[in-house]
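A reminder before we start the practical. When you read a complex entry, don't treat the lines as separate problems. The point of joint prediction is that each chain is placed relative to the others, so the output describes one connected object in space. Small molecules and nucleic acid strands, if listed, are placed in the same frame. In the example below there are two entries. Take a minute to note the order of the lines before looking further.
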Amino acid sequence: MSKRKKVPTTRKLDLVRGQVDLSHGAGGRAMTQLIEELFMDSFDSELLNREHDAAMFSLPPGRVVMSTDSFVVSPLFFPGGNIGSLAVHGTVNDLAMGGGVPKYLTAGFILEEGFPLADLARIVTSMADAAHEAGVAIVSGDTKVVEKGHGDGIFINTAGVGVVPGGVETCGDRARPGDVILVNGTLGDHGVAVMSKRENLTFSSEILSDSQSLNGLVADMLAGVPAMRVLRDPTRGGLGATLNEIAHQSGVGVELEEPQIPIRREVKSACELLGLDPLYVANEGKLIAISPPEYADRLLAIMQAHPKGREAAIIGRVLKDDRCFVRMKTQLGGTRMVDWMAGEQLPRIC
Amino acid sequence: MKYIEEFRDPELAQKLRQAIAAEVETNRTYRFMEFCGGHTHAIARYGVEDLLPNNIKMIHGPGCPVCVLPVARVDVAIGLATQHDVILCTYADLLRVPGSKFDSLIKARARGADIRMVYSVTDALNIAAENPGRQVVFFAIGFETTTPPTAVALTLAQKRGLENFSVHCNHVLTPAAMRAILGSHKSGAAKKVILDGFVGPAHVSAVIGTKPYHEFTRDYQKPVVIAGFEPLDVMQSVLQLVRQTNEGRAEVENEYTRAVAPEGNKKAISLMDQVFELRETFEWRGLGYVPDSALKIRDCYGEFDAEKRFLVEVPAARENKACSCGEILRGEKNPTECTIFGNPCTPENPLGACMVSSEGACAAHWTYGRFRADSNTEKKA
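Here is the predicted structure of the whole assembly.
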């Protein structure tokens, strides 16, 4: 814990029974107390502790990668994570998918009047733990409080910067016919974990969100196969939406092998009940990698050797197709398209 | 996944594929209609067409309740939600269905109407109980599968004296639509019917049983094989239809014995009869007015009938003239033969019934099958 000089207050923040009120966003002592006793104590970052409105830092050599993401998931706490850990993983992964080494994050909180401070503390602690695990520092923040009924408890925005080492290119327009498509594990876990909580579905074993940071796995993959062409995390819209984006950006087609796509049995069952296709269900700790064919086996071995890629699999390949169709050989032996989604009614999952 | 994976088994699929290939006569074409959207979806999603010989054509029928709801009724739903201060509850599928002037329930919701997605009519009853100061309307759609739950809700509402709850009934009947497709409605001349048989409904038959289909074998000499919604169910029923066709038989066969009893679900049938009665006629998107094809709430439950409780004024609605839904639903045209298929009619911008839900014939072909050579979308898109 750093030795900061705190603003004098008469009572400590009540993190057990207290609630967010409008004064926590008003710029006065109450706001400062919230920032000091909760955010700064939890995040414990040297740059944040300087208490400037902005964080100043130097970056190692390389191109800078930057990303921002807002989190509005409902429910806030779901099996395997909460909105706080998700807010860190989401932005860390966006930076990692750009081939970057994530370094710094900012965190913006929009809190609704009446939100329990105990819940806020749990969320902030999860953010701190997730940032620590991913090796990033939360260096600047913002807190706003909106009147009751004008928010949904808490919304979080995170932005992040990182550095892309020389020679690394992982954009979505680089897939070439013949390339091989890999994923680092089972698909649909996050979306189903959130939705089963919303719909009060129970299964023989609980489905946990896969929310996790992927920068460590990506570092190993890039070290072993620098020629890797595309990295993308299939978050909202799942594998289906992300592969359509890549196919479109690269001007190629995709052919998937349904039997090779790893999906948990419980996730399949839940999707049957909810009428969903697991290929379109969100992930928060998964990546799609596209590799030249000659490196695919090596890449698969590297992924499977990493704790976050044990269930990695080769799921398909890139084809020449001017129409940019994503199709799939089905388990049954037929073929079908895995098309863009037509605006499904899905609950908020990230 | 028990009782599901067994019916998606790739090895059994190959055996059925060989059995069908061995039985078809190569010098003719077989045209079978799967009535239900559930079957259409299974065929498209699992690529079943690839496992059938080229001379078996699957025609996708009108068994998608969202698809067949006419524009006028969608307009009424929007009107209910916007002209009266009600909480309108309905199944999520309906939210994006286009009404007049490209309006929809989801757009009305964005404008401030209180429209809520529910998974069952019970949710709507609960919402009514939780909001005693508001009128709650359940906009009921669906075939015989979703009708019994609506009937239960009406009996419960009456028993509980839930005065702020009502139902806007749009329930439709399967046999009447099959009759309409076979060109027998009382009002019209016989249409050109080019079907060799039906893959009969799955869940609908679990409610109504097998008897209502006998008129199609008796009066029209069309075989009906009731099938489950899994891909192997569909393939097995196609095999049985091929056999009946080859042998010149027209019988009702039940492939879905694990769920369908010949007499159906007697309790559900009796409950439907207690709460609902036949409408003289009802409009279907794609089929027009079909006699005796829908249900309305009986007078004894009339106090919970939203059609009586709320006056909704909507201008006369028109279907898109360029749309070939009618021909497609009757099996006279393929989706790709419709001039607006793919441009401008797509699942994002549905103009006709068959493109509205993923279970509709055009949406299924667009979403899952348009890579096939017979698709004309490439040249249009």
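Discuss with your neighbour: The domain at 22-164 of chain A is CATH 3.30.1330.10 (60s Ribosomal Protein L30; Chain: A;). What might explain this?
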